[in-house]
Structure prediction request, 310 residues.
Amino acid sequence: MTKKNTFFLLIFLIFSNIVFSQRDAQYTNYMFNTQLIQPAYVGTNGHTIITALGRVQWIDLNGGPETLTVSLDTPMGKQDNMGLGLSIFSDKIGPASENRVTVDFAYSLNFPFSKLTFGLKGGINELEVDYSKLNIADENDPFVVYDSNKLKPRIGLGIYFNTEDYYLGFSAPNLLETKYYDEFEIENSSFSVVSDKIHYFAMAGYVFDLTQNIKVKPATLMKFVKGAPIQWDLSLNFLFNYKTTLGIANRLDSALCFLAGFQLSDSFFIGFGYDYMVNELRSFNSGSYEIILKFKLLSAEGKILTPRFF
Prediction:
């Protein structure tokens, strides 16, 4: 098989997975924007935070995913035992674009030195297909003539336990297995339905003090989707003087990831991520890039009182 034929085979396999089931976007900097996958995280940091993340996946591969998210997370209640969040999400891959607005609510049970939080996520998801980006062989194809813009609801749940040193969490950001294109049933066709499969996330992390000024955090994130291999991220991040973060992660059988973050002030953080593919796709792209910006509103005293590494 020639390299050109291998390329088209890979593209076919990638987009076949998208046609059968929409798989949620992935993030290298998920540990700095946990709200996107875990509604119970909102409010647990104790500060109002605005986060923006941009990701370009598979550089040089035409039609590769491009993701942009903006989120707001703030504590509520007299004892900061509630949290409220808002997220705006946009993802493009090939001719398909997905847009989403979600609201998160969290309620915490406070214990000595720990907190158990329950979260609820709700919102609207839009999936749109731009047929002008496709070479249509048959203009009478029924998949072309019906409405290509779909609005569907989303409902998700999460549970999150944390202390000052470690965290554990499990979530399902969308419990609705939504079908977008099911108006037509075509005989002997496997491409008659596009659906959102339920994604389950399990996460854990622990912060160790190597020295007074150096912290290290091993962490893991596992994603479970019916009909797809388990995605497992293992990461190791170092924090120096609460200012600089350096890390490495391994997305098993997929990518080797490198992270760097800089706390430029008490309120402003900027982070970067790069994924180097370790599977067959590495021959056809130059990796994936991420940038994340976090703006944290200061406390009444004008500074962050207890910086946390998650």
About this structure: Confidence is low (pLDDT under 50) at residues 1-22, 183-192. The chain has two helices and 15 strands. The first strand starts at residue 49 and ends at 56. The helical segments are 3-20, 142-145.
